[in-house]
Give the backbone structure.
Amino acid sequence: MTANLDWKSLGFDYTKTDFNVRYTYSDGKWSEMEVTADEYVPMHMSASCLHYGCELFEGLKAFRGVDGKIRLFRPEENAKRFISSARRLCLPEPTVEMFVKACEECVKRNARFVPPYESGASLYLRPVMFGTSVGLGVRPSKDALIVVYCSPVGPYFKSGIKPIRVAADRSQDRSAQHGTGDVKVGGNYASSLLCGEMAHKNGFANVLFLDSVERRYIEECGAANFFAIKDGEYITPKSPSILPSITNKSLRQIAQDLGLKVVERPIDIEELSTFEECGACGTAAVISPIGFVHDMQTGKDYVFDMENVGEWSMKLYNTLRDIQYGRCEDKHGWTLEVKVEE
Ligand code: PLP
Ligand code: COI
């Protein structure tokens, strides 16, 4: 029985589900997987995640397909990125198997919250790890807690697949060149909040972050990667300080399958005026076409199309969605079916 929710009006917000799945690390080893209905985590006030940012997370989705089957999209990729984030923060590393097993269990236990196919919504999984050692000195946490919970979600941007307005802002950096921009740690998001708020107040959906050295090259679009289309090429930034997006990785493959040439290279903001289409991509954002960019420092505007979605962005979006909802062959083996008794 599916939960009684107004699926069509879901935004990107937390909705309570039935269970979450946990592992704890102490005395040098991981616990067995535990399932609980408790939404709270036990935490000492001096736990390292609360003071020194020893926290990391992931985001992935489960979809109810056209055939009624539930599929997780590329959970092993999230597992690998979760492990690389843990390594960067000197936290204990789980295995890919532990991560994927917890995601599958979370979906199984909350299957009634996987939105119906017709709703266009999905179940967002949020695996998170906290360093829990108690102390005062700045040092790696020896203890950790992993929680995998989920929430049914609708579109991240209220406008759905409509073009968005974004502001390029050099006044604050999301991450330093060799900082933590390439891993998914909470600190990156904390440092992006203030300019995100300023952008929202000025009517922009998101901030286009530039590199922190020359403040010239496009890095990320809020919590999503950036891509552009020009002369039969799918172009996306190459930089040590952007998060390696799993959606972008998938779109690069899809772009190639559709006959586009894939190019990863630094992208100067001035190049925006030469692009035929551009957009933000990520698990939450899916593909959000960028219709307009305002440069906060130079005052320059880059106008795309605020009414229509570009031809290639639409093709890429449709192909990705077709794979996720089981409407076409998953020829790269990206989805993992989660078998549930409903
Ligand atoms: N960049 C940032 C900063 C993000 O937070 C996200 C979201 O996860 C992405 C890019 C997109 O990554 P993915 O496609 O793996 O969700
Ligand atoms: C995702 O796309 O999964 C994200 O993690 C974005 C999130 C920070 C809202």
Remarks:
- The CA atoms of residues 47 and 132 lie 5 Å apart.
